[in-house]
Amino acid sequence: MDEMIASVGRSRIYLHGAARGLVSEGETLAREACAFGPDVMAIAVSREELEGLLLNLDPAEGSDDFDGMTNYDEEYARHLTRYGDVSIPPADLVEACRYAIGAAIPIRSVDLTEAEMTDASLRLLRPFDTIRYGIVMRNLRGRRFKAEDGRAFAVEWDGAVRRIRRFRALEELRERHIAARLSALARRYERVFAALEVQMLEGIASTLDGRARHGVGPAAARQDSK
Question: What burial letters (b/e) apply to 14-46, b meaning 16+ CB within 10 Å?
């Protein structure tokens, strides 16, 4: 499933997983957000990415969709075009912001900040991991993917990267952080809509389920004040 609802106390969190970059995902997110009627929009990007996104909700006409991408993101996006039109900024994130602005509800970043991501990468990754990552990327360029739709492709692509143990640990750290931030938001708002990457959906849902059963510590609640 690419959408789930998690409960934290009396609050509900709608977990929406998208193939980030597909234009069609924007309409899907807008429709589901409208049906759910959230009190807050949570977006799985860094605080800095969210600030940039809010400044670029309407990119200049004729701009290059791949301009400014990393090699990793560009290769991912070019493969993704097999499943539909691709846009930068990603359509699901643009529509998440537009919905929140139109509904006059707050928008919150729930991913690691850029500084936190850099620190986590330095702690978890070793030079050999970077070499292995480069090899995986070269192999993915010419790979024929079995996925029949964009979301399945995103999961398949991510799975190849997560075969590198330390990169998998980094992504799992992000999932735990996002789950903690969502739990904190659920203590302030009754209905939280979370715009996530589909490949992180199950990990975040599983972590939220564990937090609901075992309780959430005060550290997660404090993060919401940032």
Answer: bbbbbbbbbebbbebbbebbeebebbbbbbbbb
Closest to 173 measured CA to CA, from 129, 218, 204: 204
**The residue to which tokens 């004040």 are assigned:** 225
For residue 185, the one-letter residue type is L
Q: How many helices (H) and strands (E) does the chain have?
A: 10, 5
pTM of the prediction?
0.88
| Domain range annotation of the chain | 3-223
pLDDT in tens, the chain (226 residues): 568 999 999 999 999 999 999 999 999 999 999 999 999 999 999 999 999 999 988 765 545 455 555 667 788 999 999 999 999 899 999 999 999 999 999 999 999 999 999 999 999 999 999 999 999 988 888 888 989 999 999 999 999 999 999 999 999 999 999 999 999 999 999 999 999 999 999 999 999 988 655 544 333 333 443 4
